[in-house]
């Protein structure tokens, strides 16, 4: 298998010129979660483009193109700064209001146990064209090598997402919480799994360019 060179950069370091492409990776990867707002990923990107706080997202680049992303926050840090008028402009009054409320309530609330020094990793995603080429592994290794953190959590992973759960376990994460979700079966899963990792500082991998495939 030919190795893929993956370079990981923080979104704000890439700059505003990458904002649209980062947003497109985000909405395509989580489109299933947004079907109540719109099934049109272009329209979703139009609505959400403004709200991503780029300094909270890390982007995996292959040949300069965004191939995947993941977020990292601690304590009360937010990932998004949604503006109701902007979302409504693209999704309409009813769906725009629904989208705004859901984002505020479910995507911006701090998780249980959130505190400074505890790194919460979320929204780990790989573009379909790059799956199986080590993109998610490169992202996570980069995050685990950032200075200032020893403890990490991954919250609310769908229990049917075997590839993600397997990757996280391979990197040393262990399950610490599992909860059932009402009506989850209608969305194709049965519950949500949360995982954690407490890392020995001496064992931290080197950050930076990460070649290889999962």
From TrEMBL:
It comes from the Bacteria. Residues 59-200 form the N-acetyltransferase domain. InterPro entries: Acyl_CoA_acyltransferase, GNAT_dom. This is GNAT family N-acetyltransferase.
């Amino acid at each position: 298998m030919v190795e893929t060179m993956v370079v990981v950069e923080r979104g704000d370091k890439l700059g505003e010129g990458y904002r649209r492409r980062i947003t497109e990776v985000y909405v395509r990867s989580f489109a299933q979660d947004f079907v109540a707002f719109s099934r049109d990923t272009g329209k979703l990107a139009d609505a959400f483009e403004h709200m991503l706080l780029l300094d909270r997202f890390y982007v995996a680049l292959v040949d300069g193109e965004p191939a995947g992303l993941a977020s990292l926050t601690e304590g009360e840090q937010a990932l998004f700064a949604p503006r109701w008028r902007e979302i409504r402009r693209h999704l309409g009054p009813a769906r725009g209001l629904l989208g705004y409320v859901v984002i505020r309530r479910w995507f911006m609330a701090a998780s249980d146990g959130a505190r400074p020094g505890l790194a919460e990793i979320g929204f780990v995603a790989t573009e379909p064209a790059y799956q199986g080429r080590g993109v998610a592994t490169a992202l996570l290794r980069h995050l685990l090598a950032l200075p200032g953190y020893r403890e990490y959590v991954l919250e609310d992973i769908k229990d049917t997402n075997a590839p993600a759960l397997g990757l996280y376990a391979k990197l040393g994460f262990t399950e610490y919480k599992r909860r059932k979700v009402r009506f989850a079966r209608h969305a194709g899963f049965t519950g949500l799994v949360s995982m954690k990792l407490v890392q020995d500082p001496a064992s931290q991998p080197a950050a930076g360019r990460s070649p290889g495939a999962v």
